[in-house]
Write a structure and sequence with these properties.
By secondary structure, this protein is mainly beta. Among the domains are: about 1-15 and about 645-690, no CATH class; about 350-635, 7 Propeller (Methylamine Dehydrogenase, Chain H). Helices cover about 0% and strands about 45% of the residues. It is built from three helices and 61 strands. It has a four-stranded antiparallel beta sheet with strand order 2-57-56-55, with no helix packed on it. Strands 3-4-5-6 form a four-stranded antiparallel beta sheet, with no helix packed on it. A hairpin with a 3-residue loop joins β28 and β29 (about 335-340). About 50% of the residues are buried.
Length: about 700
């Protein structure tokens, strides 16, 4: 019996630990909404890299594509040779760091080589360009004119003196050479530079591109041999579009002011490809896909001016295989070019996704709303985003609207058939047949409308500018009530007891307990923009907003108490959600996610799942959530909640932390540990269980109690 009692003194806790950032999946657009920064073609293999560690690859000349998230770093350039794929980057979690990753199996897996002469702890220099002339010899370059050279496939690197101190944007070694002759470019205006080596990168000579127009960046280049090539660039601020041509290996240059040659072509170019001395393609900001067939004397824009959506595309890289070209861009864009034919393959062109709803009874049925705008002939032109999915986001169908010259901001799904949307210029639309047709509803508003909520099929609310519209007969009639304190309503929430609380521009919330007839304002401390409102029950709620401040109420929004978010910059404008009184999360710009496990007393930062700005967060239930982003992005996420379950209260007599199982895991693992009674622990009574990642960064606090 004594032995049995001794055994009973051991305490075991079993903790279900979920990945803090959950499982995120891009639903719209396919395959990602991240900005893609560079593209490289190696035979039938195409590699495209971008922000947030994104890699898109095809092994059959673009017929099929695979999405990978290698890590969280911004990838600036990619180069493939044989089965090796090399990636250069930086700018992780709002910090500029050097980054280099390599794959030796054609992109199946990657190794981040952080312990070498390129990447050192605390290094703040971005890497912008990478190029290999064979399996062993390669070059990588970036900020402050830094360049490195490897002769063993990237395992070790040696610094190279370049003679320049500004960012190197591009590296290129002509394929027709022996790897002895190579070029690098960077800078802006008359101080833009052209670097050349004739001894395989051991030494470089610098030439100033003095003829380059003022304010024009030397951004990208391509050569067909050691003599003939083009540099392209310009400025998206001026805006100007520039190309420079050489036929003597950079000894002299001819400058083409492309925007002067063709007034329809403006803004900076980020990709250029020379098929022969006369036939050159280039791509860049503002939908610029252009070509010359006469060696630069004239330039043609391949996107017609009438295609307003494509005119807003931000295109970043270009590469060809034979006469077929591929272009990368913002919003996960991949475009195929053949002669003058343009095929849009992936991505969303300059439409932001503002809100989303999925059915609570049918997880396959959902709608996303948003829109975009651009300047055309001196006028602002708007275009709506309203897409429907019936297969959980695998495919999306644009809805046919009677008024599409708007940006849609809010959506409410009363049931699978009855859906309402609202947007700018007082526009409200509804469908009663699950999107087969949409009816424009006049509620008497002219201002921008950003949120719509229905308490039931009859009673609904729409937020306006200093007023909130309401209906009590299913939308047949609408009235409004004005309020003081704040301006535009950004988001509303309805508590179980039918109290409506609205977050507005200004340091206030608005609260109504009589179905929106009257409204009472409440000051939110330390906040100017409490845009997002979330109530867990009738009394307990939180707000967050534009300047990363959080506040909590315990009396249904009558008053608010400030909580410290733990960050001093950034935005939590994407929304928030609480699973219970302790566990919650808030989303913001550039993939920022804050978590709390004690009701908001403390918040901790998790690392970015995306670099897109979050627009809104919606949970169909506690296990299934969605987030909308810039560039028409929509992600689903699951298993975000961390739950802690104590299964015994027996007194322990020893410390013991067991191996978690299963390991590796996704998304759940169990952690088993034991602790001694306080006397045998020499007075220690506070127990803390924390999770760290492989780099030693604290990810979350699972347990902290006596």
């Amino acid at each position: 019996m004594k032995i049995i009692c001794t055994l009973l003194l051991v305490l075991f806790f079993s903790v279900n630990s979920y990945s803090q950032t959950g499982t995120y999946t891009w639903l719209h657009p396919k395959l990602t909404a991240e900005r893609l920064n560079a593209i490289n073609i190696n035979g039938v293999n195409i590699f495209v890299v971008g922000n947030a560690g994104v890699l898109m690859m095809s092994t059959n000349s673009g017929a099929n594509w695979v999405f990978k998230k290698v890590n969280d770093t911004t990838f600036h350039d990619v180069f493939s040779i044989g089965n090796d794929v090399h990636i250069a980057g930086g700018s992780y979690d709002n910090r500029s760091i050097r980054h280099y990753s390599k794959s030796t199996n054609n992109g199946v897996t990657f190794t981040s080589l952080t312990q070498n002469t390129i990447v050192t702890p605390g290094d703040t220099l971005n890497l912008r360009a990478v190029y290999f002339t064979d399996a062993n010899t390669g070059y990588i370059a970036g900020a402050s004119g830094k360049m490195f050279r490897t002769t063993n496939g990237g395992l070790n690197w040696a610094s190279v003196i370049t003679g320049v101190t500004t960012t190197i944007n591009k590296l290129y070694f002509p394929a027709s050479g022996t790897g002895m002759t190579g070029f690098a470019i960077g800078g802006s205006g008359a101080t833009a530079f052209f670097l050349k080596t004739i001894n395989a990168g051991l030494n470089w000579t610098s030439t100033t591109l003095s003829a380059n127009p003022t304010g024009s960046n030397a951004t990208t280049m391509h050569f067909i041999d050691a003599n003939t090539g083009y540099i392209a660039g310009g400025s998206s601020i001026s805006p100007i579009t520039t190309a420079l041509k050489t036929t003597d290996g950079g000894a002299s240059w001819t400058v083409f002011d492309i925007d002067a040659l063709n007034p329809n072509i403006r803004y900076e170019l980020f990709g250029v490809y020379v098929l022969n001395e006369n036939l050159v393609y280039a791509a860049g900001a503002n939908g610029n896909i252009i070509r010359t067939t006469d060696g630069g004397a004239s330039w043609q824009k391949l996107f017609p001016e009438s295609n307003l959506a494509y005119q807003s595309a931000y295109l970043t890289g270009m590469s060809f295989i034979g006469n077929t070209g591929y272009i990368s861009g913002a919003g996960g864009t991949i475009i195929k070019v053949q002669d003058t034919s343009i095929t849009f393959m992936y991505g969303e062109i300059m439409k932001h996704a503002y809100d989303v709803r999925f059915s609570k009874t049918d997880s396959l049925l959902g709608f996303v709303v948003g829109g975009g705008q651009r300047q055309s002939t001196g006028q602002t032109v708007y275009y709506a985003l309203l897409d429907k999915t019936t297969n959980g986001g695998a495919t999306w169908t644009p809805q046919i609207l009677s008024s599409s010259n708007i940006i849609l901001k809010g959506i409410e799904m009363i049931d699978n058939n009855n859906i309402w949307v609202c947007g700018d210029s007082g526009k409200v639309m509804r469908t009663t047949n699950s999107g087969n047709s949409w009816e424009l509803i006049n509620i008497g508003a002219i201002e921008n409308l950003e949120d719509i909520r229905f308490k039931n099929a009859s009673t609904g609310f729409i937020g306006g500018n200093g007023r909130i519209f309401r209906t009590t007969n299913g939308g047949a009639n609408w009235t409004f009530s004005t309020f003081t304190g704040g301006t535009n309503v950004r988001e509303m929430d309805i508590t179980p007891n039918s109290t409506i609380v609205a977050g507005v521009n200004g340091a206030f919330t608005q609260r109504s307990t009589d179905n929106g007839v009257t409204w009472v304002s409440a000051t939110v401390p330390n906040s100017n923009y409490p845009h997002n409102v979330y109530f867990l029950n009738d009394t307990l709620g939180w707000v967050c907003g534009l300047i990363a401040n959080i506040a909590r109420t315990t009396n249904g929004g009558i008053s608010w108490t400030a909580q410290t978010s733990g960050i001093f910059a950034g935005s939590l404008d994407g929304g928030m959600h609480f699973w219970d009184v302790n566990n919650g999360a808030a989303w913001g710009l550039t993939g920022l996610v804050l978590r709390t496990t004690n009701g908001g007393v403390n918040w901790f930062k998790t690392y970015p799942f995306t670099q897109m700005g979050a627009r809104n967060v919606y949970f169909a239930n506690n296990n299934r959530g969605y987030i909308t982003t810039d560039m028409g992005g929509l992600m689903s996420f699951t298993n975000l909640m961390t739950s802690i379950i104590q299964v015994s209260t027996e007194t322990p007599n020893e410390f013991k932390l067991c191996q978690n199982y299963p390991n590796p895991f996704n998304p759940v693992t169990k952690i088993v540990f034991s602790i001694p009674p306080s006397g045998e622990a020499r007075g220690v009574t506070d127990i803390t269980l924390k999770i760290y990642d492989i780099l030693g960064r604290e990810i979350t606090l699972l347990l902290m109690k006596n």
